Amino acid sequence: GFLGALHRETYQDDALAGRFQNAEVQKSRQTVQYEAAGDFLSQAGISAHPKAVNNARKLGEALLQPGRCLVMGDLWPPSVLLRPNGRIGLIDWEFAHYGQPLQDIAHFVAHCELQAEAAAPALRDDIQAFLRRFIQAYRQALGKVFNELYDERQLHHFDVHRAMELLMRTFGPFKAGYIFDGVPAGNPLLRSIAARAHQLLIT
């Protein structure tokens, strides 16, 4: 709900757009993440479809363009604090910038999917139920602005970013120190995640 309100209330705010520029982070992501799609898929034993590589590159280029609302910029589980009183806090805002909201939501969705893949079956169901509630609360908080922020092109980019985050954490440089650290590249689960990411990239 907080993220939906953040994106809604800062949508088309020229003052914030001028104050929250973080182009260097996006340039770094373009090089390290979006332009490396073919390399990640190759490490997974997948011959990358040209469309997959092209879609990833195009998203990196699109995210260098002027944004539409304030985004947190690095929304993943370690940035979420569950307080003893039941309240939730978000930390690590150094990547905050005026950008595209899909980069927050697709990022978090991908990490929930990764957590679910690594969890025991009972916990996996809980994570998937949480993710459904997360999306529902986010859309409700966005209200009518949802259709303006998420047109067909943005929904496509949503899937592309989601796919690239899945690849980054299974076959990319950010695998180290996270869920699948030390798991060999030939592991069937990692290959399955990469195959799903590949399909998202060419959809």
Question: In short, what is this structure?
Answer:
This protein is mainly alpha-helical and 203 residues long. It is built from ten helices and four strands, in the order αααααββββααααα.
Strand order of the largest sheet: 1-4
Give the strand content.
5-15%
Shape: globular
Computed over alpha carbons, the radius of gyration is 17 Å
Low-confidence stretches: none
Task: Note the gap between the termini.
Answer: 29 Å
**Helix/strand structural class:** mainly alpha
Mean pLDDT value = 96
Count of distinct strands: 4
Tell me the layout of helices and strands:
Layout: H1 2-9, H2 14-19, H3 23-32, H4 37-43, H5 50-62, E1 69-71, E2 80-82, E3 88-90, E4 97-99, H6 102-118, H7 121-142, H8 146-149, H9 152-168, H10 188-202
Antiparallel strand pairs: 1-4, 2-3
Helix pairs in contact: 1-7, 3-5, 5-10, 6-7, 6-9, 9-10
Outline the structure in words:
This protein is mainly alpha-helical and 203 residues long. It is built from 10 helices and 4 strands; from the N terminus they run H-H-H-H-H-E-E-E-E-H-H-H-H-H. The chain has a two-stranded antiparallel sheet with strand order 1-4. A two-stranded antiparallel ribbon has the order 2-3. A hairpin with a 5-residue loop joins strand 2 (80-82) and strand 3 (88-90).
Keywords for this structure?
203 residues; mainly alpha; two-stranded antiparallel sheet; 10 helices; 6% strand; globular
